[in-house]
Model the fold of this input.
Amino acid sequence: DKYKGRCYDIEPVAGEDNQYIAYVAYPLDLFEEGSVTNLFTSIVGNVFGFKALRALRLEDLRIPPAYTKTFQGPPHGIQVERDKLNKYGRGLLGCTIKPKLGLSAKNYGRAVYECLRGGLDFTKDDENVNSQPFMRWRDRFLFVAEAIYKSQAETGEIKGHYLNATAGTCEDMMKRAQLAKDLGMPIVMHDYITGGFTANTSLAHFCRDNGLLLHIHRAMHAVIDRQRNHGMHFRVLAKALRLSG
Done:
């Protein structure tokens, strides 16, 4: 009885028939410290499959400071990105390389160079640019690094590229992040929903410890947040992402 959740208020949804907002509180001891994975497993792990419910949507989370403080949170904001790129007083200009799939690593690096040389502050990989037969991740990292250093030498400006470190295993993901660091790249990227919160938190810790910026792509979010009466509001995914770091 000590550890059960308690519904302390129910109110109807305005303009909707037979829909209600329920406010549920859970004891703090139910949750592992610093674990977004456990947080979601506990709150939405099984209840969405209950046959008694036609639909269910998690609209928001109100997280007490005592629990929030067990997470590292995001170490960097826009100011640190401006500091790393030495760009102030205006918006940062960037783009995603297109076509995102099918280019060789050499041609991909050439596209990065032309964009940065042409005046952009940064370029980025897209969400499914990982390590395909036509462009392996290590080759992409090396050609992109060459493009960045060449464009910096010619423009006298600091440039960046969001290298997608998302991989099939956490071990491979960390290898990619480590190479990005070794090459002197300022930013790595991760698909945090498809990659998973455990992987994302590990990568966030690595980036914090090694002075890297972490850019996030929300690939697959619409599977969870698109329906108004079922799933999860994106604000919940965003809060969980900040907890993850």
Notes: The first strand starts at residue 6 and ends at 12. The domain at 78-222 is CATH 3.20.20.110 (TIM Barrel). The mean pLDDT is 95. The CA atoms of residues 36 and 169 lie 18 Å apart.
